[in-house]
Specification:
The chain has 548 residues and is α+β, with helices and mostly antiparallel strands. 56% of the residues lie in helices and 9% in strands. It starts with a helix and ends in a 7-residue tail after the last helix.
Length: 548
């Protein structure tokens, strides 16, 4: 009967608590304003000849149609350590939502105990006096015939043992919305962390693509200089033959030899660049350099460019902008938490317990006790801490708004930078290709004139050097265009959009599984499932986007 009254007492107060918890202090979140241009400045007067749509958030690099790059990019999700760290931070943020939401519910504690009490006797006391006391108190159940409060020989003993069982409950009634604002802040932080995963993923993928193209360009430069060595070697042979017949000098031979040696020396620089890029790619896919070997393969000079669309869509397509905005939402909710500290805290407490001097007495209703009632606590003086806390919350909100706006400005700057890069380098590439063709023709004509004796060897050296420099510049422009193409896709968000961030309801349940394995564990299974639309860890991570 006592337990039933206790339960009904709590249920009776629930409607009142529900009415009291309808208030949430602090401003409701609104997206802060940010400068957004009507159109991109650098797109005026230039459009890519054949723009291609990014293949989507999962495999935007498919626009380059390179199977080796495709295989390397897929390994980023499995073993990139920065990405794994971002995912771990996301799981921690998601768990924080569970911690904050738990405060909305009552706390129930169970306890059980047995306590003994007694006295310490004196060895100098007379046994007679002690025995008479024991005899006299036996009728009350506290002597040696009861629970043994005394003992013979003047020594102390246990006077009583008390057994107890109890349940205690405490419920912080969220009258002013402090807990709900804390939940709101933690949810926004978790959403920002989810966007951070996408940003880290995109950054790693873009860096890998840039390193890969630089490696391929180093291969092309190696091929160019290898061919140049052969051409210079042929010029050296001609100079040696002309020297033998007396129509050339040793200066021509030494000059030709210098050309050969210099070109061969440059080959080592290109090999160094290639090795460094291969090592960088290994680190990005979570492997040691000895585990990665990229074979030489041809590189298409076709540089794909994705459409820029309208500037207003950039706010929803950049994960770093989304993360900055969720940081604003979290700081906005913290203002409400700080304001709630000015109001009294209402707590409902209750207890149900049994106390008895024997184990059997724990099951007697007559030994049961209960208590139930609300309590109100208000901080009267804390040295201005609440004022400072409110000022701090407002300052952090202002800081987050400024960070958000700066992130937006930086995003538009990056898009404009890459638009200008692609536009100018496309024009430069066309001019440089003409330069290469002209230099090759000039080299051929000069070499023929030297064979005929109508030109000196200095003219041959000048023509060969001009041709080699033109080819090297053309390859550098190609590398810049490929790098600009990757950076442009990254600046546009890589096909990502804000709808991929889980909604608040997604965070109200703890994840069924956690990723606490190392980069090597289950790598094979991750690789197998990542090829499927519904598989892969990061695909599963955002699978429940539309969870209400």
């Amino acid at each position: 009967m006592t337990e039933r009254r206790f339960a009904w007492g709590i249920f009776a107060l629930c409607p009142a608590a529900a009415l009291l918890t309808g208030c949430e202090l602090g401003p409701n979140y609104m997206r802060p304003s940010a400068p957004v241009p009507m159109e991109y400045k650098e797109i005026d007067g230039w459009m890519p000849a054949t723009p291609r749509e990014a293949a989507g958030w999962e495999n935007w690099w498919a626009v380059y149609n390179d199977p080796v790059l495709d295989d390397l990019e897929k390994q980023v999700d499995i073993s990139n350590q920065n990405l794994i760290a971002a995912e771990a931070a996301y799981r921690a943020a998601r768990a924080e939502v569970g911690i904050q939401r738990a405060s909305l519910l009552p706390t129930l504690n169970a306890s059980a105990g047995a306590r003994g009490a007694g006295t310490f006797g004196s060895s100098g006391s007379s046994n007679a006096g002690s025995n008479s006391n024991n005899t006299g108190s036996g009728s009350s159940g506290t002597g040696s015939s009861g629970t043994g409060s005394g003992s013979t020989g003047g020594r102390g003993g246990v006077s009583a043992i008390t057994y107890s069982l109890g349940l205690d409950t405490s419920w912080d009634i969220d009258v002013w919305g402090r807990i709900r604002r804390s939940v709101e802040a933690s949810v926004a932080t978790a959403q920002a962390s989810a966007a951070d995963i996408a940003a880290a993923r995109l950054a790693a993928q873009a860096q890998l693509a840039a390193d890969y193209f630089q490696l391929r360009v180093a291969d092309l430069q190696t091929q160019s200089y290898t061919a140049a060595v052969a051409d210079f070697q042929m010029a050296l042979t001609i100079a040696q033959n002309r020297l033998q017949v007396g129509i050339a000098t040793m200066a021509d031979v030494y000059t030709a030899q210098t050309q050969v040696d210099n070109a061969e020396a440059q080959l080592f620089n290109f090999q160094l660049v290639r090795d460094r890029m291969e090592h960088a790619i290994a680190a990005l896919i979570g492997k040691t350099p000895d585990q990665v070997a990229i074979a030489t393969a041809p590189l298409s000079e076709d540089v794909p460019v994705v459409p820029a669309e309208v500037p207003s869509t950039l706010l929803q397509r950049r994960p770093d902008i989304a993360s900055a905005e969720y940081a604003v939402a979290s700081a906005n909710a913290e203002i409400g938490v700080a304001l709630a500290a000015w109001y009294p805290d209402l707590t409902l407490t209750g207890s149900l317990g049994v106390v008895a001097t024997s184990l059997g007495g724990l099951f007697k209703a007559s030994n049961a006790t209960w208590s139930l009632g609300p309590s109100i606590a208000e901080t009267v003086f804390n040295g201005g801490a609440r004022v400072a806390t409110n000022l701090q919350a407002q300052a952090r909100y202002d800081q987050s708004v400024a960070n958000y706006r700066q992130t937006v400005l930086t995003a538009f700057q990056q898009v404009e930078d890459q638009l200008a890069t692609l536009k100018i380098l496309e024009e430069e590439a066309a001019a440089q290709n003409r330069t290469v063709n002209d230099a090759r023709l000039a080299e051929e004509l000069t070499l023929n004139q030297y064979r005929a004796g109508t030109a000196d060897f200095a003219a041959v050296i000048i023509a060969q050097t001009a041709r080699l420099n033109a080819e090297t510049t053309a390859l550098n422009v190609l590398n810049g265009r490929l790098s600009g193409s990757v950076n442009f896709i990254m600046a546009l968000g890589g096909g990502w959009d804000e709808s991929r961030v889980p909604q608040p309801g997604f965070f109200y349940t703890l994840p069924e599984t956690t990723r606490n394995d190392g980069p090597q564990q289950d790598a094979k299974s991750e690789a197998e499932t990542s090829a499927k639309p519904e598989g892969g860890f990061f695909q599963r991570l955002f699978h429940a986007i539309d969870t209400p």
